[in-house]
Design brief:
Two copies of one chain form a homodimer.
Chain A: H1 7-11, H2 15-36, E1 38-39, H3 41-45, H4 47-56, E2 63-66, H5 73-78, H6 116-130, E3 136-141, H7 148-155, H8 157-160, E4 165-170, H9 181-194, H10 199-202, H11 204-208, E5 212-218, H12 222-235, E6 241-246, H13 254-258, E7 265-266, E8 274-275, H14 276-290, E9 294-298, H15 308-313, E10 318-320, H16 325-337, E11 341-347, H17 348-351, H18 355-363, E12 370-374, H19 391-395, E13 402-404, H20 409-420, E14 426-429, E15 433-434, E16 450-453, E17 459-463, H21 466-480, E18 487-490, E19 493-495, H22 499-504, E20 509-517, H23 522-529, E21 536-542, H24 552-559, H25 563-575
Parallel strand pairs in A: 2-3, 3-4, 4-6, 5-6, 9-10, 9-11, 11-12, 12-14, 13-14, 17-18, 17-20, 20-21
Antiparallel strand pairs in A: 1-7, 8-15, 13-19, 16-18
Chain lengths: ~575, ~575
């Protein structure tokens, strides 16, 4: 039934057919996600809601803005992407997130939390300016609802004098269970309304901002949803509406329903890697035993960051603030003013949200906050919005900040030990997983690199991080077959650089390798260092493009980093 | 009375003496600000409140966190800084903002809006972790209260399980009158309570998040404030409290009371400059006549950005969203998805708050949003938190973004005309004021530079922006006295660069000049471009330090850009 379905056909279906369609969608999603990886339980929970939305509204004339996009799979299947659905999250395939480039049914690209209400307001405002007539809907989960952007958007609803429908899809979960007072408030609303009372009084928060509040309804009850959306569509002609629905994360699959956090994101990797997050969790827990000043802060990703045990062991010294990356950074800075030793663990891509606070609050006050920047470098299948390839570029220029890139999980552990006594802002960036151990090191000294392999004295390859060093060593091997020995240097501190080592390099050709953008990254620091020195520097780093989905290794090669390219460059130089 | 006052003495004063003290404080503030520049009306409005706070609480044991810091002058005068107060905002003098380095009575550095509640929570949490006992107070104006950080902090109040006092100083103004639904709500609260009714019902928003709400009181009534704060101090032992006070911005000086926006910030500059903001306002208004797709978005700075007339003329095509820089950026992106042509005008330092949205929403979707980045480069007397010296570094590496730096106000006008037909993300950065016109140019072509002065062929000085070009031309003059002619190139696009011109340069010594940090800035792009080319490149840009307050010219020189240093470098090179 799902194959070749059009929105027009969907609108002519009976309820029974629609319910069967929902089951088919669930099967396709489950089958595909177990194969390709992706977001499972969040997508299973919203099948009925998305069928109902496509039934009631007229997409693409009406516009549906997703928040984050962990709930968009059913929408993709209903809007012409069934046949490509098996390519989801693969290189060249369809995206796991809404994508304007992919379909006119996707009107706004997302990936980071909290943007949907602002985007829906902008689209509605544009509609009004152009004098057009269509509906704009934001679909947001309760996890995203913690983000400060929601408040900023709410605050301007009346200013913009426009109407949108906001569907609050409340499943009680971010990736982890949703935390915070707004979530507690949503729970109170749900309970009250289950008891059919107090509705008017409690919904006041939303009404203050200019929304009519309508809820709470069962978002997995297709018939009710269709009826409710028809009703709300009328109301929307008069004013903006919040429709509050409850859905069951993982709906339809008991394993997912019982384990919504574990099945939020499914990884399809077969290979066994060591996770840097495990090292973070284990080491920080150990360090915190000796140092009661250590505190840990996360923004809704405690488990994936490896900190579940820390949080269990030290509840009074840990806090997950929900998807509030700005607030998390200031909490760390302010706790540090009182002598605590905060660790803020966060994915590279989400750290972008803390940018101003890293500058003003943490580094501007020169406070000993450690940023544990996970998923740095290419992250893979989630695509453009999730690649961690900008962090060196946006951290390197911040005064007072030390930027470290451990070469492997062992060095990461040493780096964390180093951080415990380091009394200034520090960022440590690392990828999700590694497997190679280069060598064990006794002691980390700030700004000091190490030579991992000696060469002939003509070419030095300076690389930061495990992936870059792997490329360097693989290139070294390729070149050794041609009788060339390059030296390989572990630049475990990107800032400050080891200028003593740089000054002592006898090699006239310097190659840099990093899992980050070329512009503003490690290589550009080396270029500046040698800009008047008569050395030839060649950088291997990512080109000035957004990096789409794919496997880490194929994307690294395609966008600028590979052993083959390094070896080719040197061979070409030799044969010139 | 104010001279040599200590907090201990203050606590022994009679009400009459305290009232006289308030008048003295007002006089000192007014006299000093009219001389040094600074924030006038906001500081006049909070004199009684700060006297009362110092009377009731025990600073520095208790902690007072300011939001933004436009209200801290009376606190400075009361806590040991009377004798240095005449140096405020001057090089080497005391700061116009709270500063930990300056006094133990300043517990948290600020400058950007909305951080105070998060910081107070972090300090309170640290107190609890350490088992200490003191009070933590956040003092925030209603303008800052629009920022999303407030919501993020509120959301975690119960999570952190700690108590703070939040004083909401409501004067109805940001720099401009405060806008938005939260502000309207605060007005409703004030009116209701003036009528002595409905209090319980309306204060629910705050209570939902775990605060006891207490208000509204006259913050300029010293006696009442002292009484109320004593009461709240007791309540604080049980739970967090919001104390809502109304103050009169500019209180005590009729000119300020009647003109609070015009007297928010006072500039002490005598020299007459042309303001880039005037060009923005005039040109954008003109372009919008022909193009009804043009819309303008600001975040609480419409007038200082030069857009008051635009807003008056095109109310349906303009919106000031309050201090919500993230939301503003997404509004622009989403309006652009619907075919509008949005201009987001913002100070460089505040654009830092939109960083993630520039990457994901604007550039990730390759949308034709124009960022008008005002106050770029060193901004002067406001110090570290307000220097616009990072924007080239945090914009250059974002894919799809074109970065332009006009050489003077004429070229800025041409650049805006260019932007109207430019169908991709564009940032135009410029300082507050200029005075020199280099030459008039007919047409801007993307990525094309111009040679402003031909040289002998040995040294090329490539500079971006008016200030950098002034340094370059002044250096050229100094060198001409020594018989050396350097060429001067206007790099009006930092990205993309004019590679055709770069490739054609016969000069072997390339000098770059920019009003931005060295790391990640324009010069570093040039270093990368020439990293294997055998040219010697020397960069003039800001050192890797936070730049404190001072005059623009003295700070430029001290931190790395001056005609003398450029000339010295070349003379040294000649004499080598």
């Amino acid at each position: 039934m799902l194959e070749n379905i059009t929105v027009a056909q969907l609108k002519r279906m009976t309820l029974k057919e629609l319910l069967a369609l929902c089951e088919e969608i669930r099967e396709v999603i489950t089958k595909t996600v177990l194969k390709n990886g992706g977001h499972l339980s969040s997508n299973l929970g919203t099948v009925e809601l998305l069928v109902a939305l496509n039934y009631v509204f007229d997409f693409p004339k009406d516009k549906l803005v997703f928040d984050v996009g962990h709930q968009c799979y059913a929408h993709k299947l209903l809007t012409g992407r069934y046949s490509e659905f098996n390519t989801i999250r693969q290189k060249g395939g369809i995206s796991g997130f809404p994508k304007r480039e992919e379909s006119e049914y996707d009107c706004y690209n997302v990936g980071h939390a909290g943007t949907s209400v602002s985007a829906a307001l902008g689209i509605a405002k544009a509609r009004d300016v152009k004098g057009e007539d269509f509906n704009v809907i934001a679909l947001i989960g309760d996890g995203s609802f913690n983000n400060g952007l929601i408040y900023e958007a709410f605050n301007s609803l009346r200013l913009l004098n426009t109407n949108i429908l906001l569907i609050l899809n409340d499943n009680g979960m971010s990736i982890a269970p949703t935390v915070g007072s707004m979530h507690e408030y949503l729970e109170i609303l749900s309970e009250d309304i289950a008891q059919k009372n107090k509705k008017d009084r409690h919904a006041k928060i939303f009404e203050r901002f200019g929304f009519a509040y309508d809820g709470v309804y069962d978002g997995n009850d297709l018939e009710k949803m269709i009826f409710k959306l028809e009703e709300v569509k009328e109301k929307l002609k008069i004013q903006s509406v919040i429709l509050h629905v409850l859905t069951k994360k993982g709906k339809g699959y008991s394993f997912c329903e019982e384990n919504p956090e574990g099945t939020h994101g499914i990884t399809n990797s077969a290979e066994k890697f060591d996770e840097y997050s495990e090292i973070l969790g284990r080491t920080l827990t150990r360090l915190a035993e000796k140092d009661n000043k250590i505190v840990a802060v996360t923004a809704a990703m405690t488990s994936s960051l490896g900190l579940s045990n820390f949080f269990k062991k030290y509840p009074e010294r840990s806090v997950d603030v929900g998807i509030c990356e700005e607030h998390a950074a200031i909490l760390c800075a302010s706790m540090a003013t009182e002598g605590l030793k905060p660790y803020y663990a966060v994915y590279s891509t989400f750290l972008q949200r803390s940018f101003d606070e890293i500058i003003i609050d943490i580094c501007g006050q020169n406070l000993p906050v450690t940023l544990c920047v996970d998923r740095a470098g290419i992250s893979g299948a989630d695509g453009e919005t999730h690649q961690g390839v900008f962090d060196l570029s946006f951290l390197n220029f911040i005064p007072n900040l030390t930027v470290a890139v451990p070469k492997d999980i062992n060095e990461f552990e040493k780096m964390l030990e180093f951080s415990a006594d380091f009394n200034a802002p520090l960022a440590i960036r690392y990828p999700r997983a590694g497997k190679k151990i280069f060598n064990k090191r006794e002691k980390i000294v700030c700004g000091k690199w190490e030579i991992l392999a000696e060469g002939d004295g003509k070419y030095a390859v300076i690389a930061c991080g495990e992936r870059a060093l792997n490329c360097a060593f693989n290139a070294r091997k390729l070149l050794q077959n041609n009788g060339i020995n390059v030296s390989v240097i572990n630049a475990c501190f990107v800032k400050p650089m080891d200028t003593e080592m740089l000054d002592s390099l006898k090699e006239s050709f310097i190659l840099t390798v990093e899992d980050n953008m070329l512009i503003g990254g490690f290589g550009s620091l080396i270029n500046t260092y040698f800009s008047a020195a008569g050395k030839v520097v060649k950088n291997f780093a990512y080109a000035d493009k957004f990096i789409p989905q794919g496997s880490v290794s194929e994307l690294m090669k395609e966008f600028g980093i590979s052993a083959e390219d390094i070896a080719d460059y040197i061979m070409t130089n030799e044969n010139r």
